[in-house]
Amino acid sequence: MYNSKIERISEILCLLLHIMGGESFSKTKLVKLLYLLDVVKSRKGVPKFSGITFKSYYYGPYSDEIEESISLLSSLGYVTIKKDIGFSGNSYYQIQLNRLADFGHLTDREKIEIKEIVSPLINRSLNELLNITYSTKEFKKTSFGEAISL
């Protein structure tokens, strides 16, 4: 049995990939969508979907729990991870959904709410998502390496 928090994050990641059509998406885009999902939820004054503790890093909010969740999904065959090299020479990761994970941590209502929140964001470019992410008050008031208060 895996950590239930990691299973929940994994289930949300699969759901996000499914909502986005199951195609291959950058890990960066998934991380930013997860962050924005939790920002929306926390601003409503209710517990976050993921329970992730995001920290302020070079490329915005990040958490090792996301890495652990992606590794779990990959090891169980739910996703395929592909490493690519961008035009600038930097490496990046593409994640493709093979099948939905259902560890039983998300209610049907939560799944619907997640879809409602992220649907307006999924067709945005990565740059647009980065701009939205970096402009959140939660991220702006955090120094490098600090936990982002959501």
Notable characteristics:
150 residues; alpha+beta; Arc Repressor Mutant, subunit A; 3-stranded antiparallel beta sheet; two-stranded antiparallel ribbon; 6 helices; 5 strands; 15% strand; globular
Overview of the molecule:
This protein has helices at residues 4-19, 27-43, 64-75, 108-118, 126-134, 137-140, and strands at residues 25-26, 55-57, 60-62, 79-85, 91-97. A hairpin with a 5-residue loop joins β4 (79-85) and β5. The protein has six helices and five strands, in the order αβαββαββααα. With 150 residues, the chain is an alpha+beta fold. The strands form two sheets. Strands 1-5-4 form a three-stranded antiparallel sheet. It has a two-stranded antiparallel sheet with strand order 2-3. It has a single domain, classed as Arc Repressor Mutant, subunit A, CATH 1.10.10. The longest helix is centred in the first third of the chain and has 17 residues, at 27-43. Helix content is 46%, strand content 15%. The protein is globular and about 40 Å long.
Low-confidence stretches: none
CATH class: Mainly Alpha
**What count of structural domains?**
1
If you consult CATH, what is the topology? Arc Repressor Mutant, subunit A
Quote the beta fraction: 5-15%
Structural class, by secondary structure, is alpha+beta
- Rg, Å, rounded: 15 Å
Shape: globular
Largest sheet: 3 strands, antiparallel
Biggest sheet, strands in spatial order? Answer: 1-5-4
- Annotated CATH architecture: Orthogonal Bundle
